[in-house]
Every structure is written in C-alpha cells, then in structure tokens.
C-alpha cells in the first residue's frame, strides 16, 4: 500500500490553514459526489476516507490498481486493496488475486458497489484492523495507526459536511 497519503487526485487548493474548511473548486460536483456516496450508504468515516484519498474529486481518478497488481491493487474511490475486497466483501468473496483487473473494474467504476464493499469491510474488520489492512496490507500490520489518526481528523470535519461542497486538508505527505 502507498505510504504518501496526500490527496491523490489533487484538485484542491486550500486557502486557509491545515484543517480549515474550504470550498472545493467545483462545489456542485463535490456536493453531488458526496450525496451519491451517502445515497449508497456511506457514513462520515467513508466520506473522510474518500476525501483523504481523492481530495475534492470523490472519484477513482486513477487507473484500476493504481500501478499495483493482485492483492495490492487499489480499487475504487476508497482505494481498498484487492485482498480486502476479495476476502471481506460479499460481492467479490472467493475471487483470486489475479482477478483484480477484471472484477476490480466493478468497484472501481461503480460507487454503489464500492460503498457497499467499504461498509462491509469497515463493519466486519472494525477500525483498527481496517486501517491496518488498508494502509499496510498483510505484511505490515501496524501501519494503520497513523492512517487511522488522519481518517479521524477528516471524519470530525465530515460529520458536519456530509453532502456540501466543502472539504478540508491535512498535510499528510510526511507519512
């Protein structure tokens, strides 16, 4: 999993300081994307993860896998790794590591499937194990603590901004 958690689809240019709310460049698109995720069952922690991973875009604005393959491949707006999806999401249970490209397209291109899987992953694993697997995979089980801390910061913001065109920013490039 990547170690740099700066928003990958960097289309956000915060005007205030770290952690201060700002209006996204296209607030209508950001609001519509958030509303779509919420409509599929996303909770504030899911919005926080999508914002942390994608900035204001709230889309999977990267190719399936994000230059990773098999179980390490990053899939969808939440950038869940393929191992987590094929192990804990009912939609993909039983799939093989090499199915990441073919089947991963479904969650990558459909925020409904991505959100359904995200909720299953988070609810099944609980926060600590989810953050660990999301950030460090199987080979680095302790890697999720810092990621979880930043998701928590974004989550605090997202609780009050679930469907508007606002975002926030934390400098996580050092991770």
Write the SSE topology.
Layout: E1 22-23, H1 27-39, H2 44-54, E2 74-75, E3 80-81, H3 82-88, H4 100-109, H5 111-136, H6 144-158, E4 166-167
Antiparallel strand pairs: 1-4, 2-3
Helix pairs in contact: 2-6, 4-5, 5-6
Task: Characterise this structure.
With 175 residues, the chain is mostly helical. The protein contains 6 helices and 4 strands; from the N terminus they run βααββααααβ. The strands form 2 sheets. A two-stranded antiparallel ribbon has the order 1-4. A two-stranded antiparallel sheet has the order 2-3. α2 packs across α6. It starts with 21 loop residues before the first strand and ends in an 8-residue tail after the last strand.
Please describe the structure with a list of short key phrases separated by commas or semicolons.
single chain, 175 residues, mainly alpha, two-stranded antiparallel ribbon, 6 helices, 4 strands, 47% helix, 5% strand, disordered N terminus
Radius of gyration: 15 Å
Sequence stretches where pLDDT stays below 50 over 5 or more residues: 1-15
Spatial strand sequence of the major β-sheet: 1-4
Measured as a percent range, the helix fraction is 40-55%
Strand content: under 5%
Distance between the termini: 12 Å
- Large-scale geometry: globular
Largest beta-sheet characterization: 2 strands, antiparallel
Summed up, the helix count is: 6
Q: Structural class of the secondary structure composition?
A: mainly alpha
The total beta strand count reads 4
Q: What's the helix-strand series?
A: EHHEEHHHHE
pLDDT averaged residue by residue: 83
Question: What's this entry about, in short?
Answer:
The protein has helices at 27-39, 44-54, 82-88, 100-109, 111-136, 144-158, and strands at residues 22-23, 74-75, 80-81, 166-167. It is mainly alpha-helical and 175 residues long. Helix 5 (111-136) packs across helix 6 (144-158).
């Amino acid at each position: 999993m990547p170690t740099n958690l700066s928003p990958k689809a960097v289309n956000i240019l915060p005007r205030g300081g770290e952690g201060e709310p700002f209006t996204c460049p296209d607030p209508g698109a950001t609001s519509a994307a958030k509303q779509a995720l919420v409509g599929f069952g996303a909770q504030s922690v899911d919005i926080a993860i999508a914002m942390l991973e994608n900035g204001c875009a709230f889309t999977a604005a990267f190719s399936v896998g994000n230059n990773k393959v098999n179980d390490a491949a990053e899939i969808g707006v939440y950038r869940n790794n393929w191992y987590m999806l094929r192990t804990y999401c009912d939609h993909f249970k039983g799939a093989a590591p090499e199915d990441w490209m073919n089947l991963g397209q479904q969650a990558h291109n459909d925020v409904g499937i991505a959100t359904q899987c995200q909720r299953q992953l988070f609810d099944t694993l609980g926060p600590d194990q989810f953050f660990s697997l999301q950030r460090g995979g199987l080979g680095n089980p302790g890697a999720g603590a810092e990621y979880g801390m930043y998701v928590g910061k974004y989550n605090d913001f997202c609780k009050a901004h679930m469907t508007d065109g606002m975002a926030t920013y934390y400098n996580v490039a050092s991770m």
